[in-house]
Design brief:
It is built from eleven helices and eight strands. With about 325 residues, the protein is of the alpha+beta class. It has two domains: about 200 residues, no CATH class; about 110 residues, no CATH class. The strands form two sheets. Strands 3-4-5-6-7 form a five-stranded mixed β-sheet, with helices on both faces. A three-stranded antiparallel β-sheet has the order 2-1-8.
Length: about 325
């Protein structure tokens, strides 16, 4: 009987030790976001956008991803971003170009640009000015050789401007950017006339090339700048995880930093579209979306820590209950 009781006590003790080992193992896994169980969970592109913006409680899935998967998600996001913005810009350019071509057909004088010299059959300068679809522009044709007067005119003009005279072209790109080019300097030793210009403005292949060029340029600029911002966010995230005693490695913090920039990227996309089509502007918008990314980073880390702590406490209660039940038997 004594041996039986001793054997029973040993079994209970062994079961308790097994449970303790199981508890330690599970506690370790809760702090390790590189385990195979989480790695098996693969989110689609759209689901990851949804989780990144709306579901902090599932940030443990994002934290379990490696740097390569995070960068792939970022590449997909900016590919979509670049295509949408480039399409919007190209559509606006094409719409404006075709409107300009219709105006030029009616109002542009016959001209010839050949041998680095512009020839127009006009006695007085021809000025074409429009303010349509939130775009204000002025085109001037003149046989004179003086381009200084157009530089002065464009300084006080609050739109885009192009002035062509006998040997030079003056372009106003923006409010404070006016440049003058000599036809010889820009290698304009080709024959260009009114019909050529109208054909270019009405050629859809030109706008396809514009779309591709803008998309590639936007992708390179935005992806590079955002990657630098994400690295800065990840460094800040590492500091925060040390302060709150959350055991995360760099790749996990990097993944959370990528997720925290998802909403700012979407907001920036909406803002750019509104700016292109509605000429909508908001002061300090970039500062605000930067703050959003920092808020998401901090909130994601703190909620992840809170969920980790709750999970550990629930596990402790479950294991203690199992041990007590075994001791009771």
């Amino acid at each position: 009987m004594k041996e039986f009781n001793q054997k029973e006590d040993n079994d209970i003790k062994n079961n308790s030790n097994d449970n303790e080992n199981q508890k330690d193992k599970k506690d370790k896994n809760l702090g390790n976001f590189n385990n195979k169980q989480y790695k098996k969970v693969k989110m689609s592109f759209l689901k990851k956008i949804k989780v990144s913006i709306f579901d902090f409680d599932k940030y443990y899935l994002i934290a379990s991803e490696g740097i390569s998967r995070s960068i792939i998600f970022l590449l997909q996001l900016f590919t979509l971003f670049s295509i949408i913005v480039s399409f919007s810009i190209t559509y606006k350019i094409a719409q404006t170009g075709k409107e300009i071509s219709n105006i030029l057909i009616e109002e542009l004088p016959e001209f010839l640009l050949a041998d680095n010299e512009l020839t127009c059959n006009i006695e007085e300068p021809v000025v074409i000015e429009r303010n349509e679809n939130f775009i204000k522009f002025k085109v001037i044709f003149d046989n004179s050789e003086d381009n200084n007067m157009y530089i002065e005119q464009f300084k006080d003009y609050d739109g885009y401007g192009v002035a062509l005279n006998k040997y030079n072209i003056t372009i106003k790109y923006a409010e404070d950017k006016i440049e003058t080019y000599n036809y010889k300097d820009i290698q304009a030793n080709i024959n260009i006339n009114k019909d050529n210009v109208i054909q270019i403005l009405q050629n859809n292949r030109i706008y396809t090339l514009v779309f591709i060029y803008i998309a590639i340029l936007l992708f390179i600029i935005y992806f590079t700048s955002m990657l630098i911002d994400i690295l800065a966010l990840a460094i800040l995230g590492l500091i925060i995880t040390k302060l709150v005693h959350l055991p995360l490695r760099f790749y996990s913090v990097f993944a959370i930093a990528v997720a925290s920039t998802t909403l700012p990227i979407v907001l920036n996309l909406v803002y750019l579209i509104a700016n292109i089509f509605l000429n909508f502007t908001m002061p300090q918008f970039q500062v605000m979306i930067t703050l959003v990314s920092y808020i998401y980073l901090v909130a994601g880390i703190l909620i992840l820590r809170s969920n980790l702590k709750k999970g550990t406490n629930n596990l402790n209660k479950k294991l203690n209950k199992e041990v007590n039940e075994e001791k009771g038997t």
